[in-house]
Amino acid sequence: MRFSVKAAAGLGAVAASGLAYSAGYEVRAFRVRHVQIPCLPSNRTAIRVLHLSDIHLTPRQHVKRQWLEGLAALEPDLVINTGDNISHRESVPVVMKSLRGLTDVPGVFVFGSNDYWGPVLKSPARYLLPSGMGKRLHGPPLPWAELRDEFTAVGWLDLTNRCESLAVKGTRLQFVGVDDPHLGYDRLDAVAGPADGAADLRVGVTHAPYLRILDAYTRDGYDAIFAGHTHGGQLRIPGYGALVTNCDLEPRRSRGLDHHTSHGRTSWLHVSAGLGTSPYAPYRFCCFPEANLVTLTPR
Question: For labelling, which of 82, 86, 203, 255 has a CA lying 20 to 30 Å from the CA of 269?
Answer without folding.
Answer: 86
